[in-house]
Specification:
binds adenine; alpha/beta; Alpha/beta knot
């Protein structure tokens, strides 16, 4: 899969994309990332890519022409590339959207700065607007990295043969169960005995129950979307019962 990133701050991308899983995916040719400085597409002597807003007001607006030229230069190579504009006004990014984007061969990620882009960029060049959460970043660069990371995990081979993003808990709308590694006893806090039992069906039942417990206490909204079996519902019943008893116990 190919990503073209359009940014005013190309230096922000160099180190994060060289490390760990993404670095390896690039080395293996599973993902290809091109970083383009929008300023390089400004034709004036000083490569100006922003200007004051019409109508007055604070800040600067990213000009339409350099962005148009940058996008058109990518589209010349692939007219079917989809352009995503990173903005807090966009559609919330989640695991389903990451999976959908991972099926596309080529994305152009446009990173906004300042007061955003001239509205005509949106009208004429943007296919989809995406937000990574209800907070305002200094620009779309970190959001673009979040998209690349979450999308790349769905590309076969990126996570290694032993794992796939389909197995991730969010894929099944539940949070992960707790994980432990050595030592068994850390300052009196011991690993649950069941994990040392070697009984795989008991271990997977415990893990499922803890995933349900965690999801029900931290993200009950996810439970309503989850595909729950009869066994899951029974486990949830036990959890609610245990919690009620726990609360009652705490009151004394
Ligand atoms: N640019 C600034 N804030 C952002 C956000 N929350 N999501 C995507 N792009 C952004």
């Amino acid at each position: 899969m190919r990503f073209d990133i359009l940014t005013l701050f190309p230096g922000m991308f160099s180190s994060p994309l060289q490390e760990s899983i993404l670095g390896k995916a690039i080395e293996k040719g599973l993902i290809e990332i091109h970083i383009m400085n929008i300023r390089d597409f400004a034709l004036d002597k000083h490569h100006v890519a922003d200007d004051a807003p019409y109508g007055g007001g604070q800040g600067m607006v990213m000009k339409v022409e350099p962005i148009a030229r940058a996008i058109e230069s990518v589209k010349l190579q692939n007219p079917f590339a989809k352009t995503i504009y990173l903005t807090p006004q966009g559609r919330p990014f989640d695991q389903d959207l990451a999976r959908r984007f991972s099926a596309l061969p080529h994305l152009i990620l446009l990173c906004g700065r300042y007061e955003g882009v001239d509205e005509r960029v949106r009208e004429l060049f943007v296919d989809e607007e995406v937000s990574i959460g209800d907070y305002v970043l200094t620009g779309g660069e970190l959001a673009a990295m979040v998209l690349i990371d979450a999308i790349s995990r769905f590309i076969p081979g990126v996570l290694g043969s032993e794992r796939s993003a389909q197995e991730d808990s969010f894929y099944h709308s539940l949070l992960e169960y707790p994980q432990y590694t050595r030592p068994f006893d850390f300052r009196g806090h011991c690993v649950p005995e069941v994990l040392l039992s070697g009984n795989h069906s008991m271990i997977s039942c415990w893990r499922r129950k803890e995933a349900l417990r965690r999801t029900s206490s931290r993200r009950p909204d996810l439970l309503s979307r989850a595909d729950l079996s009869e066994e899951d519902k029974k486990l949830l019943g036990e959890i609610l019962h245990q919690d009620k008893r726990g609360k009652a116990g705490n009151e004394f």
